[in-house]
Amino acid sequence: MATQSRKRKIEHPCRWCGKEIPEWRSNKKFCDEEHKNKFFNELRKQETLELGRVNKKLKRNYEILKKVIKDEVRVKIKAEALERKGFDFHFMTHIFGDYHNCYNLAWRTIEYGYVMITRTPESTLVERD
Ligand SMILES: [Zn+2]
Fold this sequence. Notes:
Blueprint: H1 33-69, E1 74-78, H2 79-84, E2 94-96, E3 99-102, E4 105-111, E5 114-119
Antiparallel strand pairs: 1-5, 2-3, 3-4, 4-5
């Protein structure tokens, strides 16, 4: 006589608690409404945190570019010097040609180790129909 496995395999785990969904039907993903709500509340919370982290990086980059360019049209600076100020080259709002933009300010690599900070070309900020 075969001995039964002590652990019952979970066939249809709840996305919140991981336990077997009682009275499972093919469209059920949660034990109940409470677990469904908890799951989606947590998901929204994580999304908000992630957006916050990225926005913080973008804002920091923008403030650094703003301080460097002041009221000039363009400023040449060592990439390393920007990084020392806390600039993170991975974070930008959009790319247009050689321009890596952070809202309405931009940088582009001009020669090894140097970047040119400029104003974002107006055309990249215009809404398209
Ligand atoms: Zn559950």
